[in-house]
Model the fold of this input.
Amino acid sequence: MFTDRLYKTAKPIWEASYHHPFVQGIGNGTLDIDKFRFFMEQDYLYLIEYCRLFALGSLKAHNLQTMTVFADLLHSTLKVEMDLHRQYAERIGIEKEKLEQVQPAATTVAYTSYMLNVSQRGSLAELVAAVLPCTWSYYEIGTRLHEIPGASEHEFYGEWVKMYASTEFGELAKWLKDLMNELAEGKREEELKWLEDIFVTTSKYEYMFWEMSERKEMWPIEINS
Ligand SMILES: Cc1ncc(C[n+]2csc(CCO)c2C)c(N)n1
Done:
């Protein structure tokens, strides 16, 4: 299966993400809330751009069934996943107005621009290779953290762990994996390698997103106005 190959190649990056202090901090409840606030603000911007990828998935789909699932995903991300962010924001003291005025950090811009660029240039296969690490690795992280005693009951991070460990996210990851395998069928090695490169790149960006949040890193240079 093509996704087994992708998983094997990206495994060291995914392991580094799981063991990243930010992710471990969510799991054992010791993460500094300021870092989580930064992450949530940037993730909200990330999700807005991610929704555009689902819209693009619907545009590039080869049949009505795939077109419908992407359209549903677009709607549920805007509603369900982003709602969780909006609720969290309120609980951790980010005003609703502020959430929509946050400036994107360098890594947020780089990650979302990369995904949109490869997906716009390519076919549905490129798009799925770009978005797959995000959904699949979050489900993997969510289910692993869920096994840590107390992680899903934590007053701030519990909801986050429960959401990403949920069967809905598991089903979504499976649907995207099946689609990736279907689209990879019959492709030449050169094309498969290109899809693998995309998958590895967005896996690295996933790692960078944790690292950015841990450091609350915006841009290496700012204009004081
Ligand atoms: C940096 C970053 N990477 C992945 C996700 C998880 N995620 C984003 S969209 C989506 C699928 C549909 O809702 C999933 C699982 C995130 N929130 N932030």
